[in-house]
Automatic annotation (TrEMBL):
PANTHER family: PHOSPHORIBOSYLAMINOIMIDAZOLE CARBOXYLASE, PHOSPHORIBOSYLAMINOIMIDAZOLE CARBOXYLASE CATALYTIC SUBUNIT. Substrate binds at residues 3, 6, 33. NCBIfam families: purE. This is N5-carboxyaminoimidazole ribonucleotide mutase.
Length: 151
């Protein structure tokens, strides 16, 4: 994430990864404030064994796109809700990538963060049968919790 202030949102992704027993790390990396850290993180991620990167940022959210420019790993972007423009700025900054450098962009805020983790799980489950089973079970539990009437 671009700032510690994003953690309230991005912790939803970490919680979901925890729930699905997916190994993960959390880092604060900013294209604007820590550009050298960004370059090192993006360039070294694949060789460190990372398989999917979830990048959350708000406002002028260049982080996901810059990471995607420097790695061949899948990058999932989460637009964090901003104070001034409620995250519309974050969304547009992340989603409007030029052709050739994709960022899989999720919804603004907590739902987007949780869904980024679920999307990462789906990607990883393609080559991990045990994870696929945990993901299917989680989805089924979600379905089972939905009442068929409001009262
Ligand atoms: N969008 C970016 C980037 C980046 O894109 O690299 N780095 C920080 N930020 C964002 O600035 C917002 C305000 O940050 P502060 O709360 O630290 O002032 C955060 O949502 C962060 O993601």
């Amino acid at each position: 994430m671009g700032s510690t202030s994003d953690w309230e949102t991005m912790s939803r992704a970490a919680d979901m990864l925890e729930t699905l027993s997916i190994a993960h790390e959390t880092r604060v990396v900013s294209a604007h404030r820590t550009p050298d850290r960004l370059v090192a993180y993006a360039r070294e991620a694949e060789s460190r064994g990372i398989r999917v990167i979830v990048a959350g940022a708000g406002g002028a959210a260049h982080l996901p796109g810059m990471v995607a420019a420097m790695t061949h790993l899948p990058v999932l972007g989460v637009p964090v809700r901003s104070r001034s423009l409620s995250g519309l700025d974050s969304l547009l900054s992340i989603v409007q990538m030029p052709a050739g450098v994709p960022v899989g962009t999720l919804a603004i805020g907590e739902a987007g963060a949780a869904n980024a983790a679920l999307m990462a799980a789906s990607i990883l489950a393609l080559t991990d049968e045990a994870l696929r089973e945990r993901l299917v079970a989680w989805r089924q539990a979600q379905t089972d919790k939905v009442p068929d009437s409001p009262q």
